Automatic annotation (TrEMBL):
Residues 1-129 form the DAGKc domain. Pfam families: DAGK_cat, YegS_C. Keywords: ATP-binding, Kinase, Lipid biosynthesis, Lipid metabolism, Magnesium, Metal-binding, Nucleotide-binding, Phospholipid biosynthesis, Phospholipid metabolism, Transferase. GO terms for biological process: phospholipid biosynthetic process. It comes from the Bacteria. This is YegS/Rv2252/BmrU family lipid kinase. The keyword rRNA processing does not apply. SMART domains: DAGKc. PANTHER family: LIPID KINASE YEGS (PTHR12358:SF106), SPHINGOSINE KINASE (PTHR12358). Its cofactor is Mg(2+). It comes from Pelagicoccus mobilis. The keyword Magnesium applies. One of its GO terms (molecular function) is ATP binding.
Length: 292
């Protein structure tokens, strides 16, 4: 088997359910590809399907879904010789946008099936692989709330962000890198492999996926007006111009907090203790990309 497509039928807002799977199956049969098309039936199913595809000798696995699905498939493919293709069908599609993929279904499908792959860096937070962005603080709180709502898309994300803004207070974090350490009172500590969360909201505008490093971005607690300005800066790639923002580029970080809590990797939530270790895995993933 050359290719395996793993399709999440419920991610994002476009072509949901049977239609999405039917379109991928039609694509495969029209082109007589040596491929399987498997549909995820529940959360956590995609890694099982990706493992099965690897065992059956797939040379390329294509994830059709949002950043959560991409993470679930990518965490199986990372560190292997198998190539990884994406058909972005999520809410924000941060990774797909960073690597220059078309967002239209048919164009993305063609590229994922036949485009060439390049080796890129990935990240790992307490052993959990990530490809786009991980974070603690407000960042993780918004992810937690968003995952608990049924609605998807940027508007729902902004709505949960606003609710979290009113409830969340900053945390004290000691950040260690190979070059030294510093203690900050941070509202968000995000560590980015790619440049954006999704929907062209740039958390680390200078991030590269081939430099062997990750970009930590710490943001101090904003009041309402500066919160709005921070969002504007994010969408205009000017976040680093804010006096509330501290960017640090390194290949590894140890985050020491006063208490354990939650963190997210590509929007999926996990628990952590007082210490969280985040590190880059240089050139660990062969991904179909236009740029990186
Ligand atoms: N058949 C299914 N039913 C319910 N949940 C599923 C199913 N298949 C996959 N999932 C889960 O759906 C969740 C959301 O998927 P994904 O992140 O791809 O979409 P999204 O949240 O709409 O997009 P984004 O992450 O870009 O906002 C994942 O955690 C995945 O485990």
């Amino acid at each position: 088997m050359e290719l395996a497509f793993i399709v999440n039928p419920i991610s994002g807002k476009r072509l949901k359910g049977n239609e999405r799977v039917a379109r991928v199956k039609a694509f495969v049969s029209e082109r007589k590809l040596d491929a399987v098309v498997w549909e995820t039936e529940r959360g956590g199913h995609a890694p099982e399907l990706a493992t099965k595809a690897l065992e059956q000798g797939a040379r390329r696995i294509v994830a059709v879904g949002g950043d959560g699905t991409i993470n679930e498939v990518g965490r199986v493919v990372v560190g292997t010789d198998c190539e990884f293709g994406l058909v972005p069908m999520g809410s924000g599609n941060g990774l797909a946008r960073h690597i220059g993929l078309p967002l239209g279904f048919d164009d993305a499908l063609k590229l994922a099936a036949s485009g060439s792959a390049i080796k890129v860096d990935t990240g790992e937070a307490d052993g959990h692989p990530f490809f786009n962005v991980m974070g603690i603080g407000f960042d993780a709180e918004v992810g937690r709330r968003f995952n608990e709502t049924k609605g998807r898309g940027l508007i729902n994300y902004m709505r949960e962000g606003w609710k979290a803004f009113r409830a969340y207070k900053s945390l004290k974090c000691d950040i260690e890198t190979p070059d030294g350490s510093r203690t900050l009172s941070a509202y968000i500590v995000a560590v980015a492999n790619s440049s954006q969360y999704g929907s062209n909201a740039f958390i680390a505008p200078d991030a590269s996926m081939t430099d062997g490093k990750l970009n930590l971005v710490a943001i101090a607690q904003p009041h309402l007006l500066s919160f709005v300005i921070l969002i504007w800066r994010m969408f205009s790639k000017k976040l680093y111009h804010s006096p509330r923002v501290t960017p640090i580029c390194a290949d590894s970080f140890t985050l020491n907090m006063e208490a354990g809590g939650i963190f997210h990797v590509d929007g999926e939530i996990f628990q952590c203790g007082e210490t969280l270790t985040v590190k880059a895995r240089p050139k660990s993933l062969r991904i179909v990309a236009m740029s990186c």
